[in-house]
Amino acid sequence: MNTTATRVVIDTNIIIASIGRKSPFRWIFDAIIEGELILCVSNSILLEYREVLELKTNVDVAENILNFLTVHPFVEKYETYFDMALITKDPDDNKFCDCAFAAGAILISNDGHFKILHELGFPNISLMSLEMFTEFCGKS
Length: 140
What we know:
By secondary structure, the chain is α/β, with parallel strands linked by helices. Helix content is 44%, strand content 13%. α1 (12-19) crosses α2 (26-34), α1 (12-19) packs across α3 and α3 (43-56) runs antiparallel to α4.
């Protein structure tokens, strides 16, 4: 395991955007493959990835990506036994917050519902937009 790698929890739309070989955000998926990033997930995050991938691609593509994510050494699985319920406007987003908190990871999302995290004193969850994270990683 690469101990200098950055731990991240990635919102579904961004992970979907990073998978395509011609995507300008492919560097994120490649960084996970290479161990420069550690993708932190929970069962509920993986289920959402699968559901959206099936809608945007097909069942076979979704299955292949999920199989890859479940066995890849730079993907860490976290089971959260709590629901902090930080996001009230879209409670389905809370699974990403809970996983980021459990993993001590940066949460990457462009979803406006997550902006509430900047206003909270506790828990301290680091939130970055895709643009901020791209700059943070020196990819801009």
